[in-house]
Specification:
The chain is α/β, with parallel strands linked by helices. It is built from five helices and eleven strands; from the N terminus they run E-E-H-E-E-E-E-E-H-E-H-E-E-H-E-H.
Length: about 200
């Protein structure tokens, strides 16, 4: 894989003060899915939106899994490092500041964003994780001091095990990140509460 071989969209920002956003879709999405949400939540931001390069029954994802909630951890690690290389190359090509990059990920996209924090923390300054679960539990945690993370979860989510948001928040806090855990009445789909929490975090 070359560093820019992901299918992707990039939209320049209009406000130099707004952080560039890395938009990471859920299973079955593509590089177009989160562009409207990124624009809504942070109108002046530059937007980088790659399409996951793994297909599961024809649906794009960012890494392989054996079954619902059962992940191919070797593939998770390899794809995370490939995504980090893509981000670095895209920053150089498009001229955004990688030290200010904020991930906005939903479901599978939130999981790969969390993996970036745990395996390639230099890739992100902040992350908005919408409906994440615990995928990786590294034996040695990175130093996430100075990084901020929002985890937004639904208390009736049929896909994410109920203890995973708390476990993920604890792991990231132990690594030094400032973590806001937002749990509200919802399933796996996003709601206005998620958008309000994300907008507050981003601004």
């Amino acid at each position: 894989m070359t560093t820019l071989s992901y299918h992707h969209r990039f939209e320049p920002g209009s406000d130099p003060a707004a952080p560039p956003l890395l938009l990471l879709h859920g299973t079955g999405g593509d590089e177009n899915d989160l562009i409207p949400l990124g624009r809504k939540l942070s109108p002046g931001s530059a937007l980088l939106s790659p399409r996951g390069d793994v297909l599961e029954h024809g649906q794009p994802r960012f890494f392989r899994r054996f079954a619902e909630g059962v992940f191919d951890l070797a593939d998770v690690e390899a794809r995370t490092r490939a995504l980090a290389a893509f981000v670095a190359a895209a920053a150089a090509k498009y001229g955004f500041d990688p030290a200010r990059l904020t991930a906005l990920g939903f479901s599978n996209g939130a999981n790969i964003a969390a993996s970036l924090l745990l395996l390639r923390p230099e890739s992100l300054a902040r992350a908005v994780l919408l409906r994440p679960m615990v995928v990786l539990e590294p034996a040695t945690l990175p130093d996430l001091t100075g990084k901020s993370v929002l985890i937004s979860s639904g208390n009736a989510d049929p896909i994410v095990p109920h203890d995973h948001p708390v476990r993920l928040a604890k792991m990231l806090r132990t690594a030094g990140a400032r973590v806001t855990l937002h749990v509200h009445p919802a399933g796996h789909g996003l709601t206005p509460d998620d958008f309000a929490a994300a907008r507050k975090f981003l601004t």
